[in-house]
Structures are given as C-alpha cells and as structure tokens.
Design goal:
Length: 720
C-alpha cells in the first residue's frame, strides 16, 4: 500500500499580533477602536439594565466581551461594504452603523456624542425595545436589526439563516461591477449548519466577494464547541471548499483588524470568499445579565481569565503605553458613554413612583400590525393590463415554449432580471425547456447552481433585498421547498414586514407540479396550500399560455416574492400563440370561464380544463372561476362573491393531497365572508391524504380526477 499526502488547495493560517504591530497602528485608528468599543459596551450594559427591569420584551442577547471581533473586523470596511449577522448582533450593527456615521461626524475620544451618533444609538435602542422610533419601527427587536443605508442588511434570529442572504448581497455587488465586499457574521453554533456550508460552496464556486466571519465564543447556549464537533478549529471548514482561512484571537482588535485586511484583499482582487475564525468570549449567559457559571456550564475561573483579556482594557493599555491617552481620559470616555446611554434611556422611559416604564406614545399603533406584509402595488399602476378573458391568435405553440418566450422578452426589456437554478443554463432550457435560449442570449445573467436549494434560494433573497436586481429562481420540483424552507418562509417571505414594511423583495420562484409523471411522493406536491398560509408571498397559477404571459409579467414587476406554479400536464399542450407578450394580469383578476346560475366551481392550474370539459359535457348551469391569483391578498373577491351570491353553492376543485390542500383555507374564508349566501356547505374535491406513489394505479388514486369532479358536481346540481 502506498499513501500520498494531500494538501488543501487554499491557505489556512493563524494570525497573531505582535508588539510591533500595535506600535505600528496609527493613533487615529486606535482612538476610533477605543471609542467604538466603549460606546458598544455602554450600549449593551443599558440593554441589560432595561431587560432586567422588564423593558425589553423578548431576549437580550448581549455581546459584552465580544466587541473586539466586531470593531476590529468592521473598522477596515468601506462605506459600500455590507454586513449581516446573527441573533447576537448588536455589536456588529453598531460597529458598522457608527462607521457609517463617522464619514461625516468625528467619532473620537474627545468629540461630542451628538447628532447622527446619538440618533444611531437612539434608533438601535428603540428597536431593541420594540418602539416605533426604532430602525425597523419596532418590528425587528433585538434579533432583527437592519439599516441598509449604513450597509447593515439585517441580523437574523435563525442560526445560520442570514448567511445565504449575505451571499446574495455579495453577488449583487459583483453583478453591478463594484469592488464592495459583504461580511456575514455567525457563531460556532451555526458553522456546521447546512445553509452555512452550502453557501460556502456556492460562494467559492462563483468567486463571490464574501467573508465568512465565525465568531467562536465556544458555547452554543451551554454546549461547548468541543462537544459539538470533532474539529473545533472552525476555520478549517473553509479548506473543504478551497477558501483561504484565518484563525485569530478576537479579543485582540488589532489582530482581527489585520486578518480582516488580508481577507478583504482576497475578495477585492476577485479571488472569491474568505473565512475568518475569531475566538471571543461572551461574559454573560445566552440571554440576560447572569454569567454562564450561574447555570453550571462554566466556572468562575474560566470567566475571570477571559475578562483579563478584555478588548477595551487591551486597547486602553496600549494607548497609555504609547502616551496617546491617559487613564483619566479613558475614565472620562467611559463616563461619557454611560451618560449618553442613560440620557437616551430616560427619553424612552418614564418613572412612575419607583417603577420605570416605556413612554406610551412610543409604542407602534396596533393598526400597524399588518401594514407592509406586501407591496401596495404602486409599481404596476401604469402597466398595460390584459383583459380578464384574453383571446389568443396566431400560430400554434406549446405551453412550455410560451414560458420561454415571455422570459426571453422580459430579460430583453429588463436588464435587472437574472435566472438561477439547477441546470437552467443547459439541456436546451433546463429539464423541461422552460429556460430555452436564455443562457445563449443572456450568458451573464443565467446561472446554473449546485444542488443546494437552501443556499441559492437565500442568495436570491439577498439579491432581491439589495434592490438592484430581480432574481428568478427555479425549483425543479416544489417539494424541494422543504429543503429551503427557512429561506423561503422565514427569510424571503417575512423580510419586508419584519424590517419595518419598507424593504422590497422582488423575487420570482418558478416551480412545476408533476403529479401523474411517476416521480413519487417527494416530487409531486402542489405547493399552493402551503404558500397560501405563509405571509409575504404572492401566488399565481396559470392555466393557459395567455394567462402565463400576463401573470409572469406582473410577477416580474411586483416588488414582492411571487410563486409561479406551472404544471407538467400543461407544458406540452398546444394553443394559439399569445399576441401580446407585454401586458399584465394584476392581482385580483380571476377569469370566469363559464357562466351559470346553479353552482360556483372554483379551481386553478391544470384542473381548469377538466372542469370546463365536464361542465360542457353535462351542459351544466354553473359558473367556472379560474382563480389565477391564489394568495389571500390577491384573490378576486369581487368575482367570487358575485358568483356565490348568485348560485348559493360552491365546489372547490384541486388535484393535490388533502393535507396540504389549498381549498381547506379557502373554504373557511368563503364561509366567513359569504356564509349568509350559502345554501349548503362548501364542497371540496381534492386528492387523498397520501402523497402520490410511484405505482401508476396508486398515483391515480392519490390525485383528484375527472370522476371525482363529475360526482361532486352532480351532487351539488341535484341540490340546486
């Protein structure tokens, strides 16, 4: 047997500062370090005090002790660089925000903490307390801090959840041709999560200007990193993906500053991402003002040893040694930081006897609850609208060819649109031909991704939130949404509302229902029912090529995430070519396919034509409504209500499984809104409880079909 040692493709080093490095630091940089460290420490102490008084609703994840990693790494960033972070992200938010403010207002040991500096501290504390004067108007709180203008794209309560979004921000800068870099901060608890590792792979493959900053504070709540992984040198993760990596003492702001400069040089040169692991220590428990030793998972000797390495004390000692500052200056700075935070806290609270409480006028109004879940649709106000019943004319074309035609047309007209997904750039238009010609015509805007839905969905989400591009994502099958559920629902769907209602998320997610193709239980779902219960998403389900054009055009204009559901049964159907590739079908535009007085049949997607065929065969006196828009904000209640008030009976028809049924919630909503006009309960046609199986017989049994529609419709007509 012969063994050959293998070497990793990327470098991996530990970086330590020397006394010479500290001596070489410019006095102004050390001054800035000390001020930012001190302000962040005072800010965090105020948060803990307020939380201890019950004035912070929810968690207060203190970063006290970890400020050196944040300040040292963010100090070298340029104004155009972007950062995001995790649930413990106050220090990163403030380090970047204060750096942004410092462009126009000095942030030094002697400068006053007024103007924009004070406004920044005020806005951050207000947000953590859930007040309307916060950066996200009170909706984000401690764990969701965003200030896009300052380059903070958002901290995140899902461990590892913000990492794919940061890749999207980095990709936006690369597509825009800038030299900006994004930095994503996460901890030792996140480093082994799939979304983080998937994003490392994607960022390396695409050479994104992204720095993965691992804040290793040794504990995920109470579990030590040595218990969680066999390789506790977490920066080693970068080697698996060919990413150069640094390990550094995060309690040493100068060492962190130096490591970040080296990583930035890699990214700005176009050489792809970098990894920095900074070892830091949180002085307190996961949440609150008690140390970890109070809960038994750390001892006081360990905590004392780490406190002796405090980053603020370290910088202060070095500045005194170099005679840049005196101990009295440091005491004065500390007192000024405390004073500004006490002053801001007093503005947000009132004393009622011996009890402090929040000023009532600072709470958001209850009426603000649902504002900003979705766009107000002002962006589509001036677009040409196709009529509800679009007539088509011209040569015969396959449905899937029209899908490709409209995407070609939109990409030709809108340079912001980019397409990504598995194999979308190959196979003459992906696995079904829906992206035909796109890669040839727009080679710099069509991207075949690794098999990593969580990563590329999150990347697209970050790209959409950046605002400069409109990503179109393809999931080969809708079942894959479960793989990417965090990014689909927790991140993309909730972002606009969570960050205050003002952020646009212009993203289109295309996917196809494949019931009847024999692909079995994990490739055959109808996602409409799941997405209809998720806030933030809009949903379209075209049943014919002309509708596909109008609905996709609307989806690519609306500043919300839109799910576009296609169906394999429709792809090869032949229809006249639509004469208009530019008009839209806006939300609230159902189509009345047949008219009658006895029953209202409501359906969508591939069940529309079978319903029409059965109605025509029976010569049934019924309304047939093709919903087209399915989400609760976009339903055409005018058409639905008018029909039900006329017929007094409703049949909902869908193909898929009963458990994830779209009609379940729609039936409930109809009965809530229109109960007085119903002469019988809403009847539903759905598939069975089980997902479709591979067996052709069992697959047919699992899906609703023509016989089910005929029986149900016959029963309702008999009652009429």
């Amino acid at each position: 047997m012969r063994t050959i040692p293998l070497e990793p493709q990327a470098s991996w080093v530990q970086l330590r500062s020397t006394q010479e490095d500290w001596d070489a630091m410019e006095p102004a940089i050390l001054d800035t370090m000390l001020v930012r460290l001190s302000l962040i420490r005072a800010f965090e102490e105020s948060v803990l005090d307020l939380a201890g008084s019950g004035l912070v609703h929810g968690p207060a994840h203190s970063s006290i002790g970890q400020e050196g990693g944040a300040v040292g790494s963010i100090l070298p960033l340029l104004p155009g660089d972007q950062v995001n972070g995790s649930h413990r992200g106050h220090h990163q938010f403030l380090a970047k925000a204060l750096g942004y403010v410092a462009q126009h207002q000095p942030l030094t040991c002697t400068a006053p903490f007024d103007g924009a500096i004070r406004e920044t501290l005020h806005g951050a504390l207000s947000e953590i307390m859930g007040l309307r004067t916060g950066f996200c108007l009170g909706r984000g709180g401690s764990m969701h801090l965003r200030w896009a203008e300052a380059g903070v794209t958002g901290t995140n309560a899902i461990v590892g959840g913000g990492v794919p979004l940061a890749a999207g921000a980095a990709w936006a800068d690369r597509l825009a041709g800038t030299h900006n870099v994004s930095v994503t901060y996460f901890g030792d608890g996140a480093v082994n999560i799939g979304s983080v590792l998937e994003t490392m792979n994607l960022a390396a493959a695409w050479k994104l200007p992204l720095i993965f900053f691992i804040e290793n504070n040794l504990y995920a709540v109470s579990t030590h990193v040595n218990e969680a992984t066999a390789e506790a040198r977490l920066s080693s993760r970068g080697l698996a993906f060919g990413i150069p990596s640094w390990q550094v003492d995060g309690m040493d702001p100068v060492a962190t500053f130096m490591a970040m400069n080296e990583a930035l040089a890699v990214c700005r040169a176009g050489n792809g991402p970098a990894v920095i692991e900074a070892t830091v220590y949180r002085y307190f428990h996961q949440n609150g003002k008690l140390p970890g030793s109070a809960f038994g998972y750390r001892d006081k000797n360990e905590e004392a040893a780490w406190r002796e390495r405090d980053p603020i004390e370290h910088v202060g000692r070095e500045m005194i040694r170099r005679q840049l500052i005196t101990s009295q200056d440091i005491s004065d700075l500390r007192e000024r930081c405390r004073a500004i935070m006490e002053n801001i806290s007093s503005e947000l609270t009132i004393m009622e006897g011996n009890q402090r409480s929040i000023r009532p006028e600072l709470w958001p109004a209850a009426s603000f609850r649902d504002v900003g879940i979705r766009s107000d649709l002002g962006e589509i106000g001036n677009l040409p609208i196709l009529s509800k019943d679009v007539s088509s004319e011209g040569k015969k074309r396959k449905f899937v060819d029209i899908v490709a035609d409209v995407m070609n047309r939109r990409m030709e007209c809108d340079p912001r649109i980019v397409v990504l997904g598995e194999d979308v750039h190959r196979l003459k238009g992906g696995t079904n031909g829906a992206t035909r010609d796109l890669a040839t015509r727009f080679p710099d805007r069509v991207f075949g991704t690794p098999i990593s839905e969580n990563a590329f969905m999150g990347l697209a989400g970050g790209l959409a939130m950046d605002g400069r591009f409109r990503p179109v994502v393809e999931f080969m099958y809708p079942d894959f949404m479960w793989v990417a559920a965090d990014q689909v629902f927790n991140q993309v769907g909730k972002a606009r509302h969570m960050f205050g209602g003002a952020i646009d998320v212009p993203l289109v997610l295309r996917t196809k229902v494949a019931m009847g193709t024999g692909y079995g239980s994990q490739h055959s779902m109808d996602p409409a029912g799941i997405f209809a219960t998720a806030p933030g998403w809009r949903i379209v389900a075209p049943s014919c090529p002309a509708d596909y054009v109008g609905l996709m055009n609307a989806a690519l204009t609306i500043n919300d995430p839109v799910l576009v559901i296609e169906h394999v049964d429709l792809y090869q159907t032949i229809s006249p070519e639509p004469h208009d590739l530019d008009g839209i079908i806006p939300p609230g535009s159902a189509a009345l396919r047949r008219t009658g007085d006895k029953v209202t049949v409501i359906t969508y997607l591939a069940m529309v034509q079978p319903v029409i065929d059965i109605v025509d065969e029976l010569n049934a006196d019924v309304d047939v409504i093709d919903l087209r828009w399915l989400d609760r904000a976009s339903l055409d209640w005018d058409t639905i209500g008018e029909s039900i008030r006329k017929t007094n009976r409703v049949l909902l028809v869908e193909q898929g499984a009963r458990g994830t049924s779209y009609g379940g919630w729609l039936a409930d909503e109809i009965q809530r809104r229109l109960f007085d006009w119903l002469d019988s309960p809403v009847m539903r046609v759905t598939g069975g409880e089980a997902s479709p199986s591979i067996s052709k017989v069992l697959e047919r049994a699992a899906c609703a079909g023509r016989d089910d529609i005929s029986i149900a419709l016959g029963e309702l007509l008999a009652l009429a």
